[in-house]
Amino acid sequence: MTFQAPHLLLALLLLPLLAWLYWRVVWREAREGYALLPGLEPLRQGSRKDLNPRRYLPLALYGLALFLGLLALARPQAMIPLPDESAGIVLTIDVSGSMRATDIAPSRMEAAKAAARDFVERLPEGIKVGLVSFAGYAILNSPLTTDHAEVLEQISYLERRPNTAIGEGLMESVRAFPLGEDGKVVGSATVILLSDGQNRTGVEPEEAAREATKLGVVVHTIGVGRAGGFDPSIPFAGFDEAELRGIADVTGGRYFAVGSAERLLEVYRELQRQTVWKPQRTEVTAVFSLLAGMLVASSLLLANWKRRVI
């Protein structure tokens, strides 16, 4: 934690002084006063009940409130995860024929669509997201937009097509990001590419990955399907792990192998936390002030309940 006005923290030095004054003026003198009336022993004995620590709970709360209030004067700041409004994420989904395999229930395609919907539904307002699907060719189903409902609608329209062109899907995704004057993408740019197959046509994935790196796009890849799992009834139903891992490595992303719908949801949620939420230094003066106010109110309520005056 840091402070915008650290010099005001010197005011905390007043707290020990105030505590000493309270002890000197209120507590000590109140007890020594009995020495002036030595014949009032019953009063002295009765005063010992005041040694109950609970009597001083309102005072302790008030002191803590004063401590937090003085901290608030120094305008504290903390690193808090907040939505990165400069972030743009493109969900890139393989819709080739092998996605109808049912090793991931109810099918790879339906599990991928469900995970993508969950990802979009959990996005904070103002975060831009786009959608690209690919099989033998790539389609930009939805450009980068803050209209999450539009992207959800496009996800529901995804249908299987023949062949697999991973490189084409990645290139289409990279082209979805706007470029700045320096020739690189504006803001944080991330592609989450999901595939269950091997590149069969079009641009080589390695070439597309180099282009993404050149433009400043990070690509996370997800291989879908059971480990070593080829469905004999579906051609090319196994993904190329080395190819997907290579794309992630070249672009600075992460690679995941997924064998269940539950794990796929977990991966998308993990990537969302990584790509959308960014620790930012934020002033938390209001939090300290609110806590101080609550402690003062609690102190007054307790004091009134016990009918004591601090």
From TrEMBL:
Membrane-spanning segments: 56-74, 284-305
Alphabetized InterPro entries for the sequence: Aerotolerance_reg_N, UPF0353/GerABKA_families, VWF_A, vWFA_dom_sf
**Pfam families, sorted:** BatA, VWA_2
Q: Which residues form the VWFA domain?
A: 88-271
Give the matching SMART domains. VWA
Question: Which keywords does this Swiss-Prot/TrEMBL entry list?
Answer: Cell membrane, Membrane, Transmembrane, Transmembrane helix
The keyword Transcription belongs to this UniProt entry's keyword annotation:
no
Question: Any idea what this protein is called?
Answer: VWFA-related Acidobacterial domain protein
